[in-house]
Write a structure and sequence with these properties.
The chain is an alpha+beta fold. The protein contains 14 helices and 10 strands. The protein folds into 3 domains: 83 residues, Arc Repressor Mutant, subunit A (Orthogonal Bundle); 157 residues, 2-Layer Sandwich (Beta-Lactamase), CATH 3.30.450; 92 residues, Enolase-like, domain 1 (2-Layer Sandwich). It is 49% helix and 18% strand. A hairpin with a 4-residue loop joins β5 and β6. It is elongated, with a radius of gyration of 27 Å. It starts with a helix and ends with a helix.
Amino acid sequence: MDPSGIMSLDERSKQIFRQIVETYLETGEPVGSRTLSRGERIDLSPASIRNVMQDLEALGLITAPHISAGRVPTQFGLRLFVDALLEVGNIDEVDRAAIEQQAATKNIKLEDALSRAGEMLSGLSQCAGIVLATKVASKIRHIDFVMLDNLRALVVLVDTDGTVENRLMELPVGMTPSALAQAANYINHQMRGLSLVDASERAQSELAYKRAEIDELAASVVEAGLAVWNDGDQSGDKLLVVRGTSHLIADAAGAGNLERLRLLFDDFEHKENLMQLLGLTEKADGVRIFIGSENNLFSLSNSSLVVAPYHDAKQNVVGVLGVIGPTRINYARIVPMVDYTAQMMQRILG
């Protein structure tokens, strides 16, 4: 059954299915026929409701987690509910005010803006906030090589924004402190203000002609030192921020799903897969919702991901943000929240 197929259900079946899903999303508990019959929206006896529930179960929309228990929506049922029946209104005014307050911050670094966005989404949704961004190419202000022993050195890079990064690199056999200093002087003199990519390209072309000017060992350090940043990061040109994992712990512990949480954290450890999934969202317009087994990343963790791309001032997609939580998250509230945060990120980047 596709989203259009669910609309072919009679109104009674559609209403009962909607009520089951909405009640489950609110409480996280199986929904029984007696509970539905006591509600104001459905004027049917428990027996009549049970007959409809049996039909919905036969269609794969709901299931009984235990014998003689109420029903919960299947992941298939949640998908159809989100696509065909979910009523998404405007963003809540309290959520809007909180997001706009963050967007009003001036002269904030990109990394700080991403971190704040993740924390804000986590706090508002009570889920984990996720932000994926294209890394801004660092431009060299100053670089130092600090010799730790005969085989290793610490590379200290200061970019033009004042950000300081430290990484370890392996040294060629026979390296001396004076050769390290010579390599640093060469980079600082010749490549100040260049991005790391541009600096690496220039180094590769110029060092071939300037072996006589700088020691051969120093030349190898120049090449290796710049390569530490260009090739050492497995995540490529992406920056991943995850905030609020404590919310996932609380939810999993309360529901007795600590094994699900362990699997989810394993997913985070393999963040290349998460970046690949979020990368697909960059090509889409608006909010996308991934539910459980619809994607390889969360197929075992029974989680949902609500994400949207955000743009820079030139309308180029530069990243993705959203939330990850249990499949019973409040989609009606979180979808406009994520969408509005993506709009506000454009204001911050502008």
